[in-house]
Structures are given as structure tokens and as C-alpha cells.
UniProtKB/TrEMBL annotation:
Keywords: Signal. This is Copper chaperone NosL. Coiled coil: none annotated. InterPro entries: N2O_reductase_NosL. Residues 1-22 form the signal peptide.
């Protein structure tokens, strides 16, 4: 004897399948991270509005959840000042910083980025970026140690960066 299903039951099954498939699609999209974009002469810093290419030092890019566009920053200081705001911290998908060991301080190259969460940072050094004191970023601990040996400062990781540290850095209290 053939089994008959009611229309409301079939609609419920279809809706649940649709939700399940949508969830899978969203997870697949989030597993593919957008790559850093070239910084052009017309790009302005997302925080201060200054033209990014007019200043030395490592730059940053951030990708927020549900937004495919890169937010670009004139310095790692501005990047982290933005990212560490409570309303932004939970919305971050991923971010990039220049590996300054692979490029020049004066004009960092577009092909020298590293994921911000994986980088090693030196704070309190004697080099200046767009906003004065900034975080020098490196792909490897040994690169950060070599920079610290030449320019001073303290080596930290992504998880060590908070608004208190950024405030001290901005006021020049880290030497």
C-alpha cells in the first residue's frame, strides 16, 4: 500500500534540507580565505583616511565576516586599533600584515604578506610607521629576533595585542 505524506510535512522536510545545504555552503565559503589585495596609490587607510602609499612601515589588511572587500590600513598600529575594538573583534574573518623581513620598510611589497594570527611582532623598536610607533611584523620568530637585535623592542604574538598595549605603544611608552 503506497504511503501518502501531507503537504505540511513535505514542506517541512524541504525547508530543513534547504537550511542544511545553506549551512554547508556557508562553511565551504569561509574555509577559502580571500588573499591580500595590492595596495594602490589611491587607497586610503580605513581608520585615518591617509593615503597608504605615502608612508613607510608594514601595512595591514582585514577581511570581515560576510564582506569580501579588503579593509586596508596605513600601518599595523591602525590595523590593530581597528581590530581590537569590541564591535570589530568578533566580526574578523582574517587579516594580513607585511612580513617586513621579505620587503623594505620604506615601501613594503604587495607579495610580502603573512596572516596576522601567525606573525611575530616587535613593539617598542626605533623604526616609525605612518602613525609613528608601530608593530614590526614578521613571518618567523628568527626574523623578529634579528630585527629586535638591530632596532630594540620586545617580541610578542597576535594574542598579546590588546588595546592597553596599543595605547602604550601609541604614547611611546614601550622602549
Amino acid at each position: 500500500m503506497p504511503r501518502h505524506f501531507s503537504l505540511p510535512f513535505l514542506l517541512l522536510v524541504a525547508m530543513l534540507l534547504g537550511i542544511g545545504l545553506a549551512g554547508c555552503s556557508e562553511e565551504a565559503e569561509q574555509s577559502v580565505l580571500a588573499s591580500p589585495e595590492p595596495i594602490t596609490d589611491g587607497d586610503a587607510c580605513h581608520v585615518c583616511g591617509m593615503t597608504i602609499t605615502n608612508f613607510p612601515g608594514p601595512k595591514g589588511q582585514a577581511f570581515m565576516k560576510n564582506d569580501p572587500e579588503a579593509l586596508k590600513f596605513c600601518s599595523t598600529m591602525d590595523l590593530f586599533t581597528f581590530l581590537k575594538q569590541p564591535e570589530n573583534e568578533t566580526q574578523l574573518s582574517h587579516a594580513y600584515v607585511h612580513n617586513i623581513a621579505e620587503t623594505t620598510w620604506e615601501n613594503p611589497a604587495d607579495d610580502a604578506y603573512v596572516r596576522a594570527v601567525d606573525a611575530w611582532y616587535v613593539v617598542g623598536h626605533d623604526r616609525r610607521g605612518a602613525m609613528g610607533h608601530t608593530l614590526a611584523s614578521f613571518a618567523e620568530q628568527e626574523q623578529a629576533e634579528a630585527f629586535r637585535g638591530e632596532h630594540g623592542g620586545e617580541i610578542i604574538r597576535f594574542e598579546d595585542i590588546d588595546l592597553e598595549l596599543l595605547g602604550k605603544l601609541g604614547r611611546g611608552e614601550l622602549h
